[in-house]
Amino acid sequence: MLTTILTTLFALAVLVSIHEAGHFFVARWSGVKVLRFSVGFGRPIFQRIGQDGTEYVFAWIPLGGYVRMLDSRNDDVPQHEMAAAFDQQKVWVRIAIVAAGPIVNLVFAALLYAVVQMAGTTQLIPVIGPVLANSPAQTAGLTPVQQIISIDGQVTRSWEAVNLALAKRIGATGYIDVALQPLDRSVLQQQAVHANASDQLPLVGGVVSYRVPVNRWMAEAVQTSPLSQLGIEPWRPNVPIVIDRLIEGGAAQLAGLRVGDKIVALNQQPMAGFNEFVTYVQGHPDTSVLVALERRGELLLLPLTLLSDVDQAGGLIGKIGVGVASISWPYSIQHQQQLGLVDGIMAGGQKTLEMAALTLSFLSRMVQGVV
Q: 331 near 199, Cβ under 8 Å?
């Protein structure tokens, strides 16, 4: 927890410093006198006056900052320094100084993304897992183990691209057009069990188009994701149900289950893997079940009462409070990409512009009352 807080504060300090540096350097290059350059608020940690007469300050609370410039509207400015006052500059110079902060932040974001792309990334190709009952996705006929090829014509090579495309439709009424490519479920599962770097996606048939009906989609959603609101979850390999961790106070811990136990059946219904297990548990909230498990070569039967929770759509689902070991993803659904210098910079710029446009679009919809 402490590490997360410190990392967040450090990141904020860096972003604020870069933002204020944009204002500072453009002001200096324009001949405007800077009286104070401050990162953070509150009591100063560091404070020094440079040879240029500017006071440099770093304060305790890195939640903002400011650049104070000479301004005849706020200060008594001697006549010989009037030309260096902010309010005496031409309009385009003042606009440049004010705009420099956010522009530098955008450039910094683009460069960071470019560095990531040049270093290389591995992302999962979006393959649909469970489709939630009574969801827009189920209404449209979407089924599991299909690759999402595009959303509203926008190609989606990763879950990040899927979420970005869906975010553009927040507040929409009408249809979301989704193009899917069916895959062979059994082959994909085998690729997870026997991973091979040469594995290819097990395509079945051609691309199928669906129209998902939405009405003021996510306009009033709170703390939820576009995927869950659409009614789909990412596909996961159906791994054995070997308990890797227990949630404190969860149903499994209270019933006496242990790390290392392998769950083989619930209420005499065999569990082929984790996906089937999750589906069964979530569909039986506040229900007593008999758990058949293997422990050190012995078969045990333990009674257990599933707890309940509310899912993203507001429905009641069962909770058991266990986790399994990390998943081995098939190579066939891993999308690896490493760009060169020019392509990386172009991708960084494009990504930054997309996110800026999405932010402006979302703000516009808020003003219009759509969301």
A: yes
Phi-psi region of 58 (alpha: psi -120 to 50; beta: other; left: phi over 0): beta
Beta bridge partners of 19: none
pLDDT at 160 exceeding the cut of 80: yes
CA angle 227–229–231, rounded 5-degree value? 70
* pLDDT tens figures, 272-318: 888 889 889 989 999 999 999 999 989 999 999 999 888 766 778 89
Length of the chain: 371
Contact assessment for residue 267 and residue 301, using Cβ atoms and an 8 Å cutoff: no
Q: Angle at Cα 321 formed by Cα 320 and Cα 326, nearest 5°?
A: 115
> Domain 124-235: which CATH class?
mainly beta
Give the pLDDT of residue 237: 85
Asked about 160 being catalytic, the answer comes back as: no
Q: Are 152 and 114 in contact (CB under 8 A)?
A: no
Q: Where are the domains of the chain?
A: 2-89, 124-235, 243-324
One-letter amino acid identity for 108?
A: F
Tokens for 160, please give them. Answer: 């990040």
CATH superfamily of 243-324: PDZ domain (2.30.42.10)
Q: What is the CA radius of gyration of the chain?
A: 28
What is the greatest pairwise CA distance in the chain?
93
pLDDT tens track for 96-108: 999 999 899 889 9
